[in-house]
């Protein structure tokens, strides 16, 4: 089978890891385009391919075009490529956004390209280790049928798994991804800040909490979210929750909101009954009142 050619538009974290993934899995990179020549050149030099700021110069010779720009620039970048004659019938044009609709690629589809989305459900912030994360990761595919079918083949080559979502479900899909990734980081930052109130440095606090976080993730992997739940709410220990609320100087509302979600999960797990859940809800809703 003839090697497929790929152009990467966008040389940030996602564009960089995709370039490495395509190169490592037998595709031929034909060029890297980016908003700045410096960023395009830095990535292109690693693969000895052309670099530039005019994306159409890169995409014209590619069978697959990956748009890996920030979401807010996708449509304008694609429109500019189309105006410069960078798309052609039969080409595959995919964006890597988890939130943007396939309509942002409409200038490419008007030119006859198959369009869709290929979003890696993964966080890329570790340089060379990013490529390792592709193995076993899930990818959300969307768009035209032919784009989805070709997207499945790409994901399979990467050693990942794929599922299909519609544009109408993307806000929910992306919100859940943010909760599972970005908000976990924010919560751990908050927890580390609380540990700082009794003398631990930010680094000490983070390192102290990480084994707990990793152990929790391991439990989730083995048993699922419901059965992995532990802690005072899971035990129906309302006095402990009330003491938490009294001790917190900031973030009581967030703690209570998360606590109410945890009450629902504990009730579903069966470790508390309806009476205990009502007591816990009262504590979380009314604040610091002790039992």
Features:
15 helices; 13% strand; Rossmann fold; 291 residues; 2 domains; alpha/beta
Account of the 3D structure:
An 8-stranded mixed beta sheet has the order 3-2-1-4-5-6-7-8, with helices on both faces. By secondary structure, it is of the alpha/beta class. The longest helix is centred in the last third of the chain and has 22 residues. It starts with a strand and ends in a 5-residue tail after the last helix. It has 15 helices and 8 strands. The chain has 2 domains: 161 residues, Rossmann fold; 107 residues. Helix 13 packs parallel to helix 15 and helix 14 packs antiparallel against helix 15.
Note the topology.
Elements: E1 5-9, H1 13-24, E2 28-33, H2 37-45, E3 51-52, H3 55-59, E4 64-67, H4 74-83, E5 92-95, H5 106-110, E6 114-120, H6 129-134, E7 138-143, H7 145-158, E8 161-164, H8 170-180, H9 182-196, H10 202-223, H11 225-228, H12 232-235, H13 238-247, H14 252-269, H15 274-286
Parallel strand pairs: 1-2, 1-4, 2-3, 4-5, 5-6, 7-8
Antiparallel strand pairs: 6-7
Helix pairs in contact: 9-10, 13-15, 14-15
Instruction: Give the end-to-end Cα distance, rounded to a whole number of Å.
Output: 71 Å
Our count of domains comes out at 2
CATH homologous superfamily grouping of the largest domain:
NAD(P)-binding Rossmann-like Domain
Overall morphology: elongated
């Amino acid at each position: 089978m003839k090697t497929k050619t790929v152009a990467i538009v966008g040389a940030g974290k996602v564009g960089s890891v995709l370039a490495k993934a395509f190169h490592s899995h037998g595709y031929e990179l034909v060029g890297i385009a980016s908003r700045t020549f410096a960023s395009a050149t830095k990535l292109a030099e690693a693969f000895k391919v052309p670099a530039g700021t005019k994306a159409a110069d890169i995409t014209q010779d590619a069978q697959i075009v990956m748009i890996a720009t920030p979401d807010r620039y996708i449509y304008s970048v694609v429109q500019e490529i189309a105006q410069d004659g960078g798309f052609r019938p039969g080409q595959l044009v995919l964006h890597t956004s988890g939130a943007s609709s396939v309509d942002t690629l409409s200038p490419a589809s008007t030119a006859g390209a198959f369009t869709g989305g290929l979003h890696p459900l993964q966080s890329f912030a570790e340089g060379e280790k990013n490529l390792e994360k592709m193995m076993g990761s899930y990818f959300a595919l969307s768009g035209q049928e032919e784009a989805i079918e070709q997207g499945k083949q790409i994901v399979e080559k990467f050693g990942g798994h794929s599922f299909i979502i519609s544009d109408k479900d993307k806000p929910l899909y992306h919100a859940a991804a943010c909760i599972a990734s970005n908000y976990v980081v924010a919560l751990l930052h908050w927890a580390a800040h609380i540990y700082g109130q009794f003398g631990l440095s930010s680094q000490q606090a983070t390192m102290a909490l990480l084994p707990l976080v990793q152990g929790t993730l391991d439990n989730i992997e083995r048993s699922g979210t419901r059965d992995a739940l532990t802690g005072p709410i899971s035990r129906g220990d309302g006095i402990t929750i009330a003491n938490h609320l009294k001790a917190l100087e900031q973030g009581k509302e967030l703690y209570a909101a998360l606590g109410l979600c945890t009450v629902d999960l504990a009730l579903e797990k069966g470790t508390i009954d309806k009476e205990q859940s009502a007591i816990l809800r009262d504590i979380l809703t009314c604040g610091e009142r002790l039992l």
